[in-house]
Protein 1
Amino acid sequence: MMKTDVVIVGGGPGGAATAVFLAKHGIQSIIIEKEQFPRFHIGESMTGECGNMVRAMGLEEEMLKRNHPVKYGVLVYGQGGNNTFWVPVMKRDEQGNLQDSFTWQVRRSDFDKMVLDHAIAQGATLIQGQATKVLRAEDGAVCGVQVRLADGSVEEIHAEVVVDASGAATFLSNAGVASKKERGKYDRQVAVYSHVKGAIRDEQDNTLIFYEKKNHWGWFIPIDAETVSIGVVAPSDYYRAYEGDMRSYFLQQMHKINPELSKRVPDVELVEEVRATSNYSYHVKQFTGKGFLCVGDSHRFIDPIFSFGLHFALTEARLAAQAIAGYMNGENRDAENPFADYQAYSELGMDVIEDLVDCFWENPLSFAFFVHTRYVDDFIDLFAGRVYQDPPSPGLQAIRKVNAKARAKKTAVSAQAYA
Ligand SMILES: Cc1cc2nc3c(=O)[nH]c(=O)nc-3n(C[C@H](O)[C@H](O)[C@H](O)COP(=O)(O)OP(=O)(O)OC[C@H]3O[C@@H](n4cnc5c(N)ncnc54)[C@H](O)[C@@H]3O)c2cc1C
């Protein structure tokens, strides 16, 4: 049996960053990771505020040394390569003014290992193995996990708090501790992706998005001096109707969905296997309680379109570390749910992004007008990940208004159909 302050299930960016931020509060942690790093992972483009979380971990110098492609913004091509819009990465200075900034695009195998190594350098202990069971105290509070180690033996790790950072594996939800995983709005889609060499890149290495039609799009993310990550996302029915194999589907889609993508890939070599991910949109609504909380993908993932996965994993890691530090210092010790505020705050941020994504898919014309013309600065903030807004910015209020209108219209149409 081992004992520590906090046990973290998953050594991906969410788990490793939680350990880094906990160490800043002087809190000990053990990370359980089942995979041997470096390992492949999708999710390579960062928001501006995600870059700031990397800086907050003390990793900016290391990032620049490793030559991860710098990202100054995202360029979105509309259908047929028309109606392009550009959102620059900008930060807010102390006076609240927007200033030029940049973030990064990363090869995840390299980035994730760097953050995990950093966590270990800050004092976290890594245990290679798989968390298999939750341990509970007499009062029902979560107090640790059981781990199957790489050699097949079983170890119990006791802790004041268990952090679930297991990503889409949703460890605590599956264990019946957090609530059930509910299907998200963008669930019926399939992403098919690979890494290529020989793509034609722009002068600046930014993230490019190519719109084909609703829920059918592609990405182009430079991840090192020669390699670009390319992915295509389509409704599941569309993908299933294709008769060839996954590789030929990927090659066909690269040339089909948008002329701006196809002109960048006249002759490319695939340097990674072609992989697919489906059913990636879900929501675990109750993800904190006595002795536990979840960060990042372990409780919710919306849609990859505007690159918010790493953003939430790292931002919530910092918020979780603050909440745990308060708890270890005696705050909310007797509360029914000591981490209720963390949960509410995390949901607030993710809800904002769901609103943004809904507006993009359901009201593309309004979205284009807002981002181009009407609420340029507010959209720069949203794309950067400044999402914990109270009160909501005029741009966010406008998004919510058009979303509500579209929902009301849909309801009226369905009511008519059943009348
Ligand atoms: C198609 C697609 C494209 C995406 N593109 C982007 C993008 O451009 N930008 C972006 O920011 N995000 C993107 N994302 C999202 C991004 O990949 C994730 O949000 C991010 O990896 C979440 O980090 P995490 O630490 O929460 O989980 P993960 O990175 O998945 O890490 C979880 C870790 O937990 C380990 N683990 C799981 N179960 C256990 C267990 N029981 N015991 C021990 N270890 C365990 C796993 O091995 C893994 O290493 C994309 C997602 C998809 C599906």
Note: DSSP finds 13 helices and 22 strands in the chain.
Protein 2
Amino acid sequence: MAISETPATGQSTSERGSGRTLRELSDLITPMTIRVAVTLRIPQKISGGGQTAEALAAATNSDPDVLERILFHLVGVGVLTRDDDGRFGLTHVGAQLLEDDGAVNPDFLDLDTVAGRAELSFIRLPDVARSGDIVAYSAQYGTGFWDDLGKEPSSAAHFDQVMADGMQKRVQEIAESYDWGALGSVVDVGGGNGTLLAGLLRAHPGLRGTVVDRDAGPATRTFREAGLTGRAEALSGSFLEPLPPGAGGYVVSRIQSDWNDADVRTILGHCADAAGAAGKVIVVDEFAAEEGVRTDSETDLRMLMYYGGKERTMEQVRALAADVGLSVRSLRRAADWTIMELSSARGG
Ligand SMILES: C[S@@+](CC[C@H](N)C(=O)[O-])C[C@H]1O[C@@H](n2cnc3c(N)ncnc32)[C@H](O)[C@@H]1O
């Protein structure tokens, strides 16, 4: 969005009223009390009927006085109700904490999960702002996001499922929007649980493929369940290391925004090396808008805090690819995503 003045008010058109006061916008107390309630499973414990703070404290192994003070705050901001007998219940807003209905994802609020801890790494934003290159998650917890996720199988499976759900909505269109069959074989670099590769193989019966991801287990299961084991395999490995060479295409789907510029060059460079002069590197992603205003600043800042990454425009990805000798050969739209075909600048 261009920043211009609106003559009638003199207000920049880039000003976006949220309808909330500065006090509400800058509050940390409500977000933290909601997170504590979710972490202690208070919404689940009161969804079937109100409970007193004392009973909830006993059920959650918490201090009754502190818990009651937290719950009182949540009554004040409209998340909980409290009846005359001191029993706390859920308002219609609080009921949204029971499940992911699209309005809010409770996973991001539960401080006992990797996603919840990742959100809490925003405490390090001042350090990140000053240094520019600290990764908040690693600084806060002493280990990287992906390593932590690998230690928590249920969180890792949930992460894969969220990724797979987003992919499933678009995989048909991605499969139809590009001539994947002409590649003969593809390596899906960081291909998660194999949802994209399985979709490509179903649509292109002559195609073979390999997922390379930190843990080959989830993609192996997907291929087995889809009856694709004859044409698909999964390897545990890192795209920060050299990739298996010789495939016709190296797919990089929703990877670049998780990494800083230097790492993106490394990943694309490994793809380019493995693809050689004849192979293609195919970036599949939803790129940031070019206009200079971040349309999805929340995701952009999450990428920054969790991984030191960023939401990039197509032009920014094209420039990083050019740094490792890759040129854009074609661009195609698939649903709301883009398929960017790259190949060696020296190749055809
Ligand atoms: C945002 S998800 C994208 C998954 C999939 N490509 C998609 O579009 O649905 C990022 C993926 O990168 C994988 N990953 C993270 N670090 C990796 C590494 N060093 N080597 C290989 N895969 C990695 C994660 O396990 C995860 O599956």
Note: The CA atoms of residues 204 and 311 lie 31 Å apart.
